[in-house]
């Protein structure tokens, strides 16, 4: 068959015989492809590279910032204000010393600053695809025209014959033609911790999941051991890695809850402002009987428009999120995208990968079965200290000598090294063998010492066909004080009589047991009965059902060193030692974190590429699932439609043997159900789901660069518990954002109503200029708002369900609070404004007749200080709170009050801001009226307490 009729997709290759695959690709295992065929296929399939789709340019991102409705209104206000100043300049109506266009310049400066702030947050380029590209090998060895050549990986085409050996990174997906002892590490792609033993001779069912396709290899994975000849089947974007790249680029970023709420807030404020402007202008025209005061009405409208927009809010939110980021970093959570700080507080579901996230990514022996007894092994990680328990009771190794014999086999039949560096125990070599060395250490068997007692002189190495390995050691007489007359260590004294050599064998329990004819009991051996054999097999099945990886151990005394090629005959007549069951053990702190998640109304879900038995064992142990809970495998999920998955997704807490596409579908199904999803992961296979999730959380230690670049947050300690701390911080941040929005917008509504009232009640002129309003919105509102942003958390913040991420910014009474407080603000200020206008226009008044405007300006600013102090708590009175529990609020109130008084009493500032000198009586009246705001809010708390209601 020609290359032009290649089968589509990768699912078919593992289900084909090698010869059939070669025929389909029109290739030859010995000679490879010809130059003509290579050229044709390069033209058809393109280079073996990951392609990148074009995203938004920097200019597009920058321009998008100025599409915000509040900024557009401010730009309109700036242009109209500039036009009015230009007219005044031409007509000579400017007051002496008045600076023209200062309002326009100030407003446009705010617009530009807000635009730059948004651009900086949004312009961080996604580098997930660049990290993905790094996983491809630069050079590869292939057979072309019957010659071995080395080419650039990008020049590979389907049908090429590729050669692999240990240490190589695989450059394309391929079907194995032949292999020798090939092990491939696929954890980044499948999530499985163990290196996979590959077999070319297998023919697998089409529905076989990604992690179980033992006859194919994948781009971006690494050869750990052995060598192979591979038929390249997929290159570039058609590889499994390419599919991940396609999914990454197909995921569209959705606005975060905070961004959605700010958009909603902007729409409401601008709409309300335009309605008020229309009312004021129409009302003024009707009142005046014409357009004779239209310029004054326009000035009022401009001031109202500036007043309604909380210019300082974006900066305050950004600083609040940045402060939250700093606090999270101190708890080992690195935030990559600023809005993620608040978004964390809305999470309802955490989808967690298993390997390295919920588990330690360290194989740990959990159970040992020997002499018809099963012992539980206690200990953490690779630390070689711990106990052996029988029926919950610690046992003495002297009473169970068979454990010592089994531990010697674990140490001797082992190619790894257990080492301690900087206080941490780690493994150099295979994690499974590392777990066996740790087990031996717990039994007091140290490999270094036993290498001298039983030096290795020969071996039968592990192979995927034999599924076992054997080590032949010479028995050295070592004086121990308690040894036999030959000086043999007591741990192995019962294994031999006079034989000078010992062979230890480990491997598949079924195959190792099948070659055993005797069993080691205590310090003796006995014939292995059929009943004992069945009991051992039943124990093996029980361990496997708990998700343990089980190995069988046996030994055989030898009188001579067997020939190298005699493994089949030498590994017969073995003496059975026992079973060892190990697991990538759960992190000890995760159980408490899972429970805390549940207390906070957050549902944890495990999504893993590992086997379902292992997944269920870990999930049940951690409390993620209960006994009997439903588990979905990748094969079952593959057969489900999106609608069926959506119906089941809330019922399933464990997903096993899943592929990258499945993870993405699960997250999307949860989102369609209205869930707000955090996805944790460390492998390349997690990247699309990390990007799709509302919060993508990557692992900092074990995580790939691809997963980190696709994420919103990185766990620096790979600790699931850190997610809980970060979620708590997210809730605190959202609570504080709502608090200072109440604070800022309550006063803004008061400002708007005050400005609107001035012409309607017959007062001459606008009480507040746009520049003064900008001062209030940026400084008077901004500094205390920043201080409120660091208010400590409420005690029950993690004892309640998360608030809906789709709730309105005005939900739970916030909107009614703002309107209520805004009206009270306006009533107090309008009352002061009426008194101040009458006072400054009374006969014999010595000051400037426009001083009433400065009194309004000062009263609004000082009233906000009382508001800031009172709003720290929704329910507790100010006198009931420690004023120093948030020292920043106290400092902000003092500093802002001093700055406000400087605008009134420092001549250069007074001239620039257009204020007037106030005497002590006038200042006292301003303070008196302002204090009423504080009194009102405290009275509200008392009233609500009496009525038994909880404030917003």
Keywords:
35 helices, 952 residues, alpha+beta, 8-stranded mixed sheet, 11-stranded mixed sheet
Characterize the main sheet: 11 strands, mixed
Structural class computed from helices and strand pairing? alpha+beta
Give the terminus-to-terminus CA distance. 72 Å
Q: Supply Rg.
A: 37 Å
Count of alpha/pi helices: 35
Shape: elongated
User: How much helical structure, as a percent, in the residues?
Assistant: 40-55%
Structure description:
The protein has 952 residues and is α+β, with helices and mostly antiparallel strands. Strand 27, helix 27 (705-710) and strand 28 form a beta-alpha-beta unit. Helix 9 packs parallel to helix 28 (720-760). The protein starts with 17 loop residues before the first helix and ends in a 5-residue tail after the last helix. Mean pLDDT is 85; it is low at 1-5 and 478-485.
